[in-house]
Description:
Order of helices and strands: EEEEEEEEEE
CATH class: Mainly Beta
Distance between the termini: 11 Å
Strand content: 35-45%
Number of domains: 1
Structural class: mainly beta
CATH architecture: Sandwich
Helix content: under 10%
Number of strands: 10
Number of helices: 0
Amino acid sequence: MSATLHWMESNLVGEVETPDISNINFGNVDEPNIVPADDPVIIGQNSFSKYIRIFFDGTWTLISNMKFWKNSGAYVEGEAIKAAANVEYATPSKDATGDDNIPTEEGSALEIESAEGEVTIEYGVSGVSGYTKYIRLQTQTTVETPSGAGNQKEYTFQWDES
Length: 162
């Protein structure tokens, strides 16, 4: 048997976690699985920040070499996606995160740690949760950003398993 990956998103004051999210869309609300047409990012403002993490279940020996990056999808004028790895959860807001632009290739990908702060997740060890730390994401726009939905983006979470 092998590990199964689950994308998790946390939202709201006090943290409400949604398992197995269907998308990482950004918007003008602090919710998972956003439909951008219903709650678009306001031109010249930021989306609510997103707190994403991965949960592994199944059976494995060791998860290692965990990385995250944006692998495709062009930006529209004035748009940027900011990202930080291994952060603590905070109530999502529209305030600028101060994070760097998300990496766009494996060679510069964010290195992701386990929830316990290790570079590996070892199966069956006491005190190991199977979770990664949080990845914080946010879309930031300028007044030059066109109205309407941005271009679709794809993200990669890569890991080695033994």
